[in-house]
Write a structure and sequence with these properties.
By secondary structure, the chain is α/β, with parallel strands linked by helices. It folds into three domains: 148 residues, HUPs (Rossmann fold, 3-Layer(aba) Sandwich); 54 residues, SH3 type barrels (Roll), CATH 2.30.30; 78 residues, Beta Barrel (Elongation Factor Tu (Ef-tu), domain 3), CATH 2.40.30.10. 26% of the residues lie in helices and 28% in strands. The protein has nine helices and 17 strands. The strands form four sheets. Strands 12-15-14-13-16-17 form a six-stranded antiparallel barrel. Strands 3-2-1-4-7 form a five-stranded parallel β-sheet, with helices on both faces. A hairpin with a 4-residue loop joins strand 10 and strand 11. Helix 1 packs across helix 6 and helix 3 packs antiparallel against helix 4. The mean pLDDT is 92.
């Protein structure tokens, strides 16, 4: 009897080719599209795009009709809003820069998929991510895919063992060019030419500041008039409000110092934004909390790993040191732009050891 797999279908080329490949391999497919966000409700001016749009849902359904498998649309806007959107707002109010895609993958999409997979008697979940799943010594873990330019292992560090054990990534051994060629060869010529979507799904105009203003009534009045200060604490001017700045930001500061200036720290307690030079962004350590281990069950001793602090970061050789419910990271080369709230992902070669959230606590070696 064919294994039954629940395929997450966004209507894009990657999930389409995922379904095509699984069908060729003889799997019994059930398609599912998740409605996570209705952008019109946020008051934005940009047309809804990406996995949440009606066009994308229709594209996913058309493929299901072509391949003759059932397709369902599930509305998870309420749980998405409660968890991802509320976290997005609270993180900026706490002076951190969140990564909502990581949170959505970890706590919303895979959990929603697993529940539906169980309800529909599906053995596996499949998505169009460019990543690989390996297993060793009873542990399941993410590893880098063949296409390093599309590597999405960074955003999947939060997946737990029971989710990884039932997940398939059919694109692990393919490049994006090969995926496009497969789509074209199967008759999906227009889809094969479809562009990439990089924006946050609920902020398709990339204006997160406008999104926060619309979502948090009275925010501008609450945070306006705060101070820009330099690294010595000298007042340089006033700013629009600390949630509207991110670590490493250079453009849009509205302040002229005669030299390139960057946001090097954010202090929400006093509505203060610290401005410095590029060298002031350099860090040799950080603390990481909310860690999920994949390749190892826990960190019992100092371990060497390559640490990524942002998507498509080249990574830096580091020493990981266990600390009460956290990991202290010593970079073996200086790193710029460590941003609290972002994900830190630890690699053993191509394999994900684990990952967590960068803390505001300062760690220097």
């Amino acid at each position: 009897m064919a294994k039954r797999v629940l395929v997450a279908m966004s209507g894009g080329i990657d999930s389409t080719v995922t379904a095509l490949l699984l069908a060729e391999q003889g799997y019994d497919i059930v398609g599912i599209t998740m409605k996570t966000w209705d952008y019109a409700t946020s008051g934005g001016a940009t047309k809804e795009t990406g996995c949440c749009s009606l066009d994308s849902i229709n594209d996913a359904r058309a493929l299901a009709v072509d391949l003759d498998f059932p397709h369902f649309v599930i509305d998870i806007r309420e749980e998405f809003g409660t968890y991802v959107i509320d976290n997005f707002k609270s993180e900026y109010l706490a002076g951190r820069t969140p990564n909502p895609c990581v949170l959505c993958n970890t706590h919303i999409k895979w959990e929603a998929l697993l529940r539906r997979a169980d309800a529909m008697n599906c053995d596996y979940i499949a998505t169009g991510h460019y990543a690989r799943i390996k297993s060793d010594a009873g542990r399941y873990f993410i590893s880098r895919p063949a296409d390093r330019r599309k590597d999405q292992s960074y955003v999947l560090w939060g997946l737990r063992q029971e989710l990884l054990a039932r997940t398939l990534f059919p694109l692990a051994d393919l490049t994006k060019e090969q995926v496009r060629a497969i789509a074209a060869d199967k008759g999906y010529t227009e889809l094969s030419k479809k562009g990439e979507s990089y924006e946050i799904c609920f902020v398709p105009d990339n204006d997160y500041r406008g999104f926060l203003k619309r979502q948090i009534p009275g925010l501008e009045a609450r945070v306006s008039g705060g101070q820009f200060v330099d690294t010595e604490g000298r007042v340089l001017g006033t700013h629009a409000g600390y949630p509207f700045y991110t670590i490493g930001q250079r453009k849009g500061l509205g302040i002229a110092l005669g030299v390139p200036a960057y946001v090097v720290d954010i202090i929400p307690e006093t509505n203060t934004v610290v401005i410095g030079r590029q060298e002031d962004l350099i860090r040799n350590g950080m603390r990481v909390r909310d860690v999920n281990w994949q390749k190892i069950p826990y960190l019992g001793e100092e371990t060497e790993a390559t640490t990524m602090i942002r998507y498509q970061d080249k990574g830096t050789l580091s020493i990981l040191r266990p600390r009460d419910n956290a990991v202290d990271v010593e970079f073996l080369a200086n790193v710029k732009g460590v941003a609290p709230g972002q994900s830190a992902v630890f690699y053993d070669g191509d394999d994900v050891l684990g990952g967590g959230i960068i803390s505001r606590e300062k760690v220097q070696w």
